[in-house]
Amino acid sequence: MRIAPGETYGLIGPNGAGKTTTISMIAGILAPDEGRIAVAGLPMTTRSAAAKALVGLVPQDVALYEDLTVRENLRFFGRLQQLPRRELAARIAEVLDVVGLADRAGDRVSECSGGMKRRANIAVGLLHEPRLLILDEPTVGVDPQSRNQILESIGALGVAGMSVLYTTHYMEEAERLCDRVGIIDDGRIVAEGTRRELIARIGEHDRINVAATGPLDRFAAAAAGLSGVVSADVVEGGLTVAAASAAAVLAPLVAAGERAGVAIGAVEVSEPDLETVFLHVTGKTLRD
pTM for the complete prediction? Predict the structure, then answer.
């Protein structure tokens, strides 16, 4: 398992698969029974202070002091990281802006919503500009608006060159944020790659359902001859087409229908997703 600079890597798996254990080893909290962990080339052990300083860990449970304000929490944790006072003040302003809490920095954490607490939790992990940020299910239990703000903040981190290890129970988050995904089950990575690579691994294709009337057999024959089309079958009310990439064949498919003399009423595209892959390689749903 390798996470490149600037890459957002999603680690997903059913309950008990080993996600928390893996995160704890990467962060230097637990010692591995075997194997080697390195962060930016530095070996990571439970005593590796230099390697640990390169990691920002944002746990699933909010780790903030409720009786302090958001800014006071950041100041406290920044001092634990031994950031110089002037640099710390600048970094607090930067991370508050990143997570969208600049105007709420003076609020006590006890008065913050669940989404605000989650975002403040992420801000703490970003304070010391880690090379690797570990986010353990950062959107659990937050409202849709806060969730979207969190995802937008995380999406900007890879652009800034930070590596991100992201665990989630929401497959759509992995698809939206992650450059690559590793599926872990029973303590092992059973599949790994980009979304497209994982889907290709199980042999799934995009499907295009075309509602049409007219000479459908002629349309099917024309569609089957298009580059990138795997199959084209006449069904009640139209045509079902399987393709390696729906986006690549959609325009030629419509043009083929017009040449075949059919009247196209509607086109619906469905793409296989990570949920399909996950079920295929583990035999479980993500929340099992």
Answer: 0.79
